[in-house]
Specification:
It is a single chain. The chain is mainly beta and 241 residues long. The chain folds into two domains: 15-93, E3 ubiquitin-protein ligase SopA (Pectate Lyase C-like, 3 Solenoid), CATH 2.160.20.80; 115-241, Pectate Lyase C-like (3 Solenoid). It has strands at residues 2-3, 6-7, 11-19, 22-24, 27-28, 32-40, 43-49, 53-61, 64-70, 74-82, 85-91, 95-103, 106-112, 116-124, 127-133, 137-145, 148-154, 158-166, 169-175, 179-187, 190-196, 200-208, 211-217, 221-229, 232-234, 237-238.
């Protein structure tokens, strides 16, 4: 059990394992760099990072992480997350995630007060609810399988290239800024209650055995090279051209 820890100087950790531990009320006042670390079956609560956070080659297995505050940007690279739960997360700057594999991961009540960049991220059987991004989303090579996303709000626009949704459901979500989407492939996907408030450009779109219901596009839509196979669009409306 590690409680009420305080670190005033930059911290760098390489090659470490934390297992079956309770960590709470920890404060990091400067930059934190973690490389090649494994966390298994831990509970981490009420943790504050006042400087930048950089994580690489990290393995997370069966952890419960709640009430984390990061006042600046976070960078995550080459991470594996299996059967983890993250609740009540606030990131005060940009968030960058590169090369991540996630399975049975739950993220609930998360706010990112900056740009979110995702590259080479795959998630299977994930659950994401109450996720708010204040700025833009940039995603490349993003795939979601058998996952549920609900109440996702993007305050800026989205630039997405190579997105795959396989048996993925997205409910009650909003996109506020102008967006450009390229190479979207949906198979067995369900989108319901999606609102798009600005112009959207979609290139190379394919939906197979998917359903789009109650989709609201409030400005212009440009769609090129799109195909629908055994898919349906219902109860949707378009106010733009």
């Amino acid at each position: 059990i590690l409680m009420k820890l305080s670190f005033l100087k930059p911290q760098s950790v390489e090659f470490g394992t934390i297992a079956s531990s309770l960590i709470g009320q920890a404060k990091f006042s400067d930059i934190v760099v973690v490389n090649k670390m494994k966390l298994t079956d831990n509970v981490i609560r009420e943790t504050m990072f006042s400087g930048r956070l950089s994580l690489s080659k990290l393995t997370l297995l069966k952890n419960f992480i709640k009430t984390v505050r990061l006042t600046m940007e976070g960078r995550v690279e080459d991470v594996m997350s299996i059967t983890n739960t993250f609740k009540d997360l606030v990131i005060g700057g940009a968030l960058s995630i590169t090369k991540a594999q996630m399975s049975k991961t739950t993220v609930e009540d998360m706010i990112v007060k900056g740009i979110v960049s995702l590259k080479g991220v795959h998630c299977d059987r994930g659950v994401f609810t109450d996720f708010f991004i204040t700025h833009d989303l940039a995603a490349e090579k993003l795939s979601l399988g058998r996952s549920i996303l609900k109440e996702i709000s993007i305050g800026g626009g989205a630039s997405v290239e190579n997105l795959k949704l396989s048996d993925t459901s997205i409910f009650d979500s909003e996109l506020h800024g102008s967006s450009m989407l390229h190479d979207l492939r949906f198979r067995g996907a369900k989108l319901e209650g999606i609102k798009v408030f600005s112009t959207m450009v979609v290139n190379a779109f394919q939906a197979t055995t998917s359903s789009l219901m109650e989709i609201s596009l409030l400005k212009d839509l440009a769609l090129s090279t799109g195909t629908f196979k055994r898919s349906e669009v219902r109860n949707s409306y378009f106010l733009g051209s």
